[in-house]
């Protein structure tokens, strides 16, 4: 499998080591890699972090695989790089694996790396420079290049197109409302974005006190943007791999995503963070509720069979109806 590191941004030297003479302290960045049964891809992912030009990193790997193949594959890398901390977490869920990484890390800045994705060698250095560009910047994201199972570049698909052609600062409220109106993760998957730890509500995937699962990344980006702004970089600083082992398109994930998009909208409005224009919200929420109900009723047998807890569906629908039917315009 190849690594697509040919498109290298120029003019950005490596960060000075923490504590180097004459240099200010370099903030610690935590790169978190939850992994499950992908030893080949995970090895490439870890190698892409080890190759970063930014020096002050900790690399936390949480492995809930069903065997020791990943541990054996990573052993040489772990032995040769003291920045890597490997955690074995058999039996925990995907979300618990994410949280285990987070709870075991210490960096002021955090960037997840999915075990089948890759970082560009200058991703962390470029994003830390953007993070320092303004006092209210709490999230930095970029264009991400799609790659196939073997690491070959793929054309962009809907939802992954480049947002801007130049580095662009975006107000947190404006960006969050654009995400909610479009019902699309414009920031990108966990691999894509770096965020300030201090802006999270306890842990990854929590938005305004509610834990999200399928849309845990969107919930995190929205939580950060309740307090901070964002920067978008147009270079491909991460590589999102499309392959047959992913589950983004199975019905259980689609059911959870429909419910969670509806809940995100309602929670944002009810807490007065985003979408405060009642008239505009009424029209948008009506359309989204109708679409969600059409889809959810079409898969009612799977919901009855346990694809999602019925109470989660009912909570989201009740929240939407409460906003539409009982709250004054």
Task: Please characterize this protein's 3D structure.
Helix 7 (251-270) packs antiparallel against helix 8 (278-298). This protein has helices at 39-50, 69-80, 94-103, 123-131, 172-182, 216-225, 251-270, 278-298, 300-304, 310-325; strands spanning 29-35, 57-63, 84-88, 109-112, 118-119, 137-147, 153-154, 168-170, 194-196, 206-207, 210-211, 229-241. Mean pLDDT is 89; it is low at 5-17. Helix 1 (39-50) links the parallel strand 1 (29-35) and strand 2. The strands form 2 sheets. Strands 1, 2, 3, 4, 5, 6, 7, 8, 9 and 12 form a 10-stranded mixed sheet that branches. It has a two-stranded antiparallel sheet with strand order 10-11. The chain is α/β, with parallel strands linked by helices and 329 residues long. It has 10 helices and 12 strands. Helix content is 38%, strand content 19%. It has 2 domains: 29-241, Spore Coat Polysaccharide Biosynthesis Protein SpsA, Chain A; 251-325.
Which helices and strands appear, and what pairs or packs with what?
Layout: E1 29-35, H1 39-50, E2 57-63, H2 69-80, E3 84-88, H3 94-103, E4 109-112, E5 118-119, H4 123-131, E6 137-147, E7 153-154, E8 168-170, H5 172-182, E9 194-196, E10 206-207, E11 210-211, H6 216-225, E12 229-241, H7 251-270, H8 278-298, H9 300-304, H10 310-325
Parallel strand pairs: 1-2, 1-4, 2-3, 6-12
Antiparallel strand pairs: 4-9, 5-12, 6-7, 6-9, 8-12, 10-11
Region (Disordered): 1-21
Keywords: Transferase
Protein name: Glycosyltransferase
């Amino acid at each position: 499998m190849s690594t697509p590191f040919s498109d290298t941004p120029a003019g950005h030297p490596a960060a000075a080591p923490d504590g180097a003479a004459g240099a200010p302290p370099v903030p610690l960045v935590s790169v978190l890699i939850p992994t499950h049964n992908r030893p080949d891809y995970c090895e490439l992912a870890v190698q892409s972090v080890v190759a970063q030009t930014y020096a002050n990193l900790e690399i936390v790997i949480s492995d809930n695989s069903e065997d020791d193949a990943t541990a054996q594959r990573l052993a040489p890398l772990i032995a040769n790089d003291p920045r890597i901390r490997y955690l074995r977490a058999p039996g925990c869920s995907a979300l618990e694996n994410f949280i285990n990484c987070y709870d075991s890390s210490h960096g002021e800045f955090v960037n997840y790396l999915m075990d089948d994705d890759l970082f560009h060698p200058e991703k962390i250095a470029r994003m830390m420079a953007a993070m320092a560009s303004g006092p209210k910047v709490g999230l930095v994201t970029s264009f991400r290049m799609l790659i196939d199972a073997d690491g070959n570049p793929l054309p962009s698909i809907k939802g992954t197109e480049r947002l801007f052609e130049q580095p662009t600062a975006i107000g947190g409220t404006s960006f969050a409302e654009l995400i909610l109106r479009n019902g699309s993760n414009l920031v990108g998957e966990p691999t894509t974005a770096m965020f300030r730890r201090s802006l999270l509500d306890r842990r990854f995937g929590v938005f305004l006190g509610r834990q999200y699962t399928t849309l845990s990344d969107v919930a995190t980006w929205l939580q950060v943007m309740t307090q901070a702004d964002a920067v978008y970089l147009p270079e491909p600083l991460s590589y999102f791999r499309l392959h047959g082992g992913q589950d983004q398109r199975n019905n259980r994930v689609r059911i959870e995503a429909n419910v969670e998009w509806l809940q995100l909208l309602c929670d944002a409005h009810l807490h007065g963070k985003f979408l405060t224009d009642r008239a505009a919200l009424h029209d948008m929420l009506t359309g989204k509720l109708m679409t969600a109900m059409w889809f959810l009723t079409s898969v009612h047998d799977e919901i009855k069979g346990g694809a999602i807890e019925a109470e989660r569906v009912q909570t989201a629908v009740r929240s939407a109806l409460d906003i539409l039917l009982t709250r004054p315009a």
